[in-house]
Amino acid sequence: MKKCLKKLVCFCLCLAICMTTTGCTADEKKEKNVIEEEYINYWTTYSKKAKMTIAGNYISYIDPVSAKEKLICNDMNCLHKDAKTCGAVVDGVVFGAIHREGKKIYYIADADTEKIGECSLFEADLDGKNRKKIASLMNANTIMSAIYTEKYIYISYVKDSEEDEKSCAAIYAFDRKKKSGKVIYQIDKVSAQIGYMILSDGILYASTGYSDASAKEIKKHKKDIRFINKHFERNLMALRLKDSKVVHTIDSTGSGFFQIREHKLFYSSAKAVYCYDIYTKKNYKIANDDKILIFSDKKESNTLYFRDDKNYYRYDIRKKTWHIIAKADVFFVEAMIGDWVYGFISSSKAGQGSESGIIKRSDFEKGNITKMKKVKTELEMN
């Protein structure tokens, strides 16, 4: 009962936190990511096979080929009401970081407990059947992102204080063999956050943020968006996993989203786009306007994708050239993985003013936005 009373509050908390996203110990340079490319952001995971979502107490997926959204439960007689009988139902308030691995799915949730935020790792078949609790994890209000590897799962999360505006934002490393974990990095500041993460050569790169205003000031100006944004600091942190030591920090990184290609890290900040050389630790500007990075896999290792209020752009890293792909007024791109581009279509019919859409990557590259398909929802949540 206690969990049910706070579901709406927790869901609003997740939406209010600024959006962010997703190869360790001394021997982790040899470790490989289980999925070559995967973008985990809150309760949504984008991969080459599908877009999976765990939200509103249900697990669903979008099949890019058919452009249909379905619950993972394929029992035609199921009413999808009880987590004990339906694999698509998740009895929790805090959940996220869903991941497909072979014929299994994994996710984090505060299910099977009456205590809100007491998270555990769960494993199930692709249809949600044979669900079992693998291990108890940390206590969290919001699961921000995660990286699954063969040996470890790295989870970024936020735990809010019940007494003031301070937060504990942390990275939790879970050893999959030992079935135990620990916090390897933590920020204890007002409105602390740790979001999107990338793992490369034993270094975990993560977007971080916090407010330089006091808890009292935040409370006083909580409805003043300009005040909140003015005092919110966004940075990128590089954590060496063999000794959990921060080896570098890049300040003032704008949206908090970034991409790595070979030894170069790209990010947007203060109406400019920058490239940070991981080897030389030097920054240089590649654009003087406000372009936003789009998540894309390394299908084309020398290419990055951006958008602004008007257009989508392709950036050639080697040639250092920009090319306009298409107008950005109809389709809002979230992620480009494999042969597909996932996003949203502007629509007055959808409850939030948009609905899911998908387009072949080859068509998007050619600027053929008209070939985008609206995702048909076949969810049956009675």
Q: Which keywords apply here?
A:
382 residues; signal; Lipoprotein; single chain; 49% strand; mainly beta; disordered N terminus
Would you mind describing this structure in some detail?
- It comes from Jutongia hominis.
- This protein has 382 residues and is mainly β.
- It has a domain at 1-57 and 92-256.
- The chain has five helices and 30 strands.
- It has helices at residues 2-5, 7-16, 215-220, 225-230, 361-365; strands spanning 39-41, 44-46, 51-55, 58-63, 68-71, 95-101, 104-109, 118-125, 132-139, 142-148, 152-160, 166-175, 180-190, 193-200, 203-211, 232-240, 245-250, 258-261, 264-269, 272-277, 282-287, 292-296, 303-307, 311-316, 321-327, 331-337, 340-346, 354-360, 373-374, 376-377.
- The strands form six sheets. Strands 25-24-23-22-26-27-28-29 form an eight-stranded mixed β-sheet. The chain has a six-stranded mixed β-sheet with strand order 1-2-3-4-5-30, with no helix packed on it. A four-stranded antiparallel β-sheet has the order 6-7-8-9, with no helix packed on it.
- β10 and β11 (152-160) form a beta hairpin.
- The chain is globular and about 55 Å long.
- Mean pLDDT is 83; it is low at 1-36 and 348-353.
Outline the biggest β-sheet.
8 strands, mixed
Distance between the termini: 20 Å
* Number of helical regions: 5
* Spatial extent as radius of gyration: 20 Å
Structural shape? globular
- What's the total number of strands? 30
Structural class: mainly beta
Helix percentage range = under 10%
Instruction: Estimate the mean pLDDT confidence.
Output: 83
Q: Which regions are unreliable across 5 or more consecutive residues at pLDDT < 50? A: 1-36, 348-353
In what range is the share of β-strand residues?
A: over 45%
Strand order of the largest sheet: 25-24-23-22-26-27-28-29
